[in-house]
Amino acid sequence: MDFAHSPKARRFIERVAAFMADHVVPAEAEHRRQLKTGALPWNQPPVMEELKAKAKAAGLWNLFLPDEEHGAGLSNVDYAPLAELTGRSFIAPEVFNCNAPDTGNMEVLVQYGSPEQKERWLAPLLEGRIRSAFCMTEPEVASSDATNMRATAIVEGDEIVLNGRKWWSTGIGHPHCRFVIFMGLTDAQAHKHRRHSMVIVPLDAPGLVIERMLPVFGALHEPHGHGEVSFTNVRVPLANVIAGPGRGFEIAQGRLGPGRIHHCMRAIGVAERAFELMCQRALSRTAFGKPLAHLGGNGDIIANARMAIDQARLLTLKAAWMMDHVGVKGAMSEISQIKVVAPSVAQMVVDQAIQMHGGAGVCDDLPLTELFAAARVLRLADGPDEVHRALVAKLALKPYAAAMDASR
């Protein structure tokens, strides 16, 4: 396995790092100020549109898409360090049009969308003119097991009718959100992997109601937010079904593979920013006559954090390399492994950085509380740790079980 950056990747790394330092990080405070003082609770800060225009003009746009027709033409291994760089800032992914859930929705439409769906929904997403949301998780059932899903998507003639309630629909609060992708049960009697459908639903469709926006540790994460959404006899044309009825599970698996690893790449960036803040604090803060770095076990904490981040990065790169060479199905164990490891490492390092900062670590003067929330949520998003561990164990045991069966 070769994790060395290709010449193309190195050029992008240099450009993205410079853009982050020159434009994105200096704009974070202004973005926050505009967000809190805008005319609407869920307004798009003008500085974001300015940054997007600059990134697009610089050719730093849709970096996550591996084909050059729609994106930058980077492999997963080459995109990984770019996602890590953007993970250091909450506003960076949107600046480069690489923010979830739009990334996953764009990947779905690129791979499975009809020409009409691509023209109406994919094109403006690729251009950054609109935003979108993904409606899969449900409040009444354990949604990590898709067979529990209660929301329905029933075909009636040339329409499909949607009913149910979804929540944690990230992005639905954004003022530029124009559609959601809804996953529902179409045929309960079909094979378990052929029961569901994915449907494009305009946000203004009659019967679609955003019931509330859900706070995360007290924060609403505007302007994107996470919504609880009800669908009551929502009727859309059958042409809005992606790839046809019954293919929802197939699409979900294809969507979640890249999405999970993108989250992990950004989680490494979260950990790196927290580590940087922790080291600066450890050297600049003095207590009991010494810098914090030389007190108690703080040296060990810093060393262990450094090693944990580097290990997580290597596992992420291994998963990315396998996705490039054997596909998502062949990399299932590695994707699940890093989905457990990267958020846990990020959460640990952020928590240690908070501790090193004392009272300053738990207020909004620093980004640590937001970083902690992001890492903690990621241990649930796109499948909880327990589900991924179960898959890793299942795949690890498979050859041993086969050998035992053969010896009987």
UniProtKB/TrEMBL annotation:
This is Acyl-CoA dehydrogenase. Residues 246-394 form the Acyl-CoA dehydrogenase/oxidase C-terminal domain. Belongs to the acyl-CoA dehydrogenase family. Pfam families: Acyl-CoA_dh_1 (PF00441), Acyl-CoA_dh_M (PF02770), Acyl-CoA_dh_N (PF02771). Residues 7-128 form the Acyl-CoA dehydrogenase/oxidase N-terminal domain. Homodimer. InterPro entries: Acyl-CoA_dehydrogenase, Acyl-CoA_Oxase/DH_mid-dom, Acyl-CoA_Oxase/DH_mid-dom_sf, AcylCo_DH-like_C, AcylCo_DH/oxidase_C, AcylCoA_DH/ox_N, AcylCoA_DH/ox_N_sf, AcylCoA_DH/oxidase_NM_dom_sf. One of its GO terms (molecular function) is acyl-CoA dehydrogenase activity. GO terms for biological process: fatty acid beta-oxidation using acyl-CoA dehydrogenase. Residues 133-234 form the Acyl-CoA oxidase/dehydrogenase middle domain. One of its GO terms (cellular component) is cytoplasm. Keywords: FAD, Flavoprotein, Oxidoreductase. Its cofactor is FAD.
